[in-house]
């Protein structure tokens, strides 16, 4: 990937500044062609080498099959399917799960087609050959795409490259909300570089807390000139009463001549893509927001996942539980396990079990240490160097070993593997009506809060992530969060 990094850096430095020049997404998409080809050839070549030992052919049911030719056709078909399925579209590459989904769908379609053709023509292509090529292809394509994303994300954070410059059109409040949302993610592909604020009152800038000032360039009639002044790659139209449907259509025609993308932010926040459906009605593109799903078949799937995952972790972790219990007992007086009353589904209390990592009676010292609370918002209590934590406890917390007994809570239906952070009763007393929606699902051992910073998060960010999960949860999201948790645990991010 070093060569890929050098190519990306060279393009970022030498790319012309003309707005008609290809954007970084197009150059990135072209390089993905080479990475995909490498992944496909790796899968097909490995399958042929393992199954046949290299260039080979065989006779199957009185039919001569040249597997070198089969591999060549498979590579060409596979690459064509990736293109037909728009897996390298500039709309999906670089972030989100949609890119991976399109790669996997294209791959499965190819092998499904091979199976059908083989059956209809009675080719009887060796099953071992296909059984090797399919999983290796999925893994190699996914890894290459992931590595390319890491290169781009690192260049964004360190050098500010591969950024889509965005001009926002909307009210000051809408500009602030959109800018803050984009600024939360350090690896985001979008950077707000200016704004056009409709209305009679003019202002030089729009101040965005935690971000700075966004310069303004007049109202909605100045969008085209503002694009040139800011060298923007896209225009985002957000909440505004001055720019109606016809105005947006006319603006899209003007931006089309400049090769500038038009984005429309509907003002719907923290709603995942699967819950949004575009429905054209009377010539109007209406966005239908599906209701959150808390019960039914999805809940059954989640329970099956919880039982299987928890049982597996407890069985594999059994050799570790006894030494940890002995270490806790020998190094500090008090019980091995720490039981804490937490609030679960529908506000019902339960006893959460953890390995004890603090001195016995640590809860009674919270009031004395309240002035040293480092959590923004004041609802949670967090300290980076908490004097109540024992030496063994600090190690257990670093690797999240103290949370292993919570899988017993999952089997007891008190908790789930993935969900909002389990709150204390005193925290729930301070909840507003928004935060109380966290109690609509079972709390989790891990969740978005765990893979997004853990104790480094402010109270507002913690609530926002938990509400996003509650409103948009799915089994695919649970699996992704579980995988990301492993990385967060070994990275020790926010663990104290």
Number of strands: 14
Identify the overall geometry: globular
Order of strands, widest sheet: 4-3-7-8
Q: How much of the residues is beta strand, in percent?
A: 5-15%
Helix content: 40-55%
Q: What is the residue-mean pLDDT, rounded to a whole number? A: 79
Q: What's the N-to-C terminus distance?
A: 34 Å
What's the domain count?
Answer: 3
Order of helical and strand elements:
HHEEHHHEHEEEHEHEEEHEEHHEHEHHH
Radius of gyration: 27 Å
Oligomerization status of the protein chains = single chain
Layout of SSEs?
Elements: H1 2-14, H2 24-52, E1 57-60, E2 63-66, H3 67-84, H4 98-120, H5 127-159, E3 164-169, H6 172-184, E4 190-196, E5 205-208, E6 212-215, H7 223-230, E7 234-237, H8 245-258, E8 261-264, E9 276-281, E10 284-289, H9 297-331, E11 337-343, E12 349-355, H10 391-398, H11 406-411, E13 416-418, H12 425-429, E14 444-446, H13 448-451, H14 459-472, H15 475-491
Parallel strand pairs: 3-4, 3-7, 7-8, 13-14
Antiparallel strand pairs: 1-2, 5-6, 9-10, 11-12
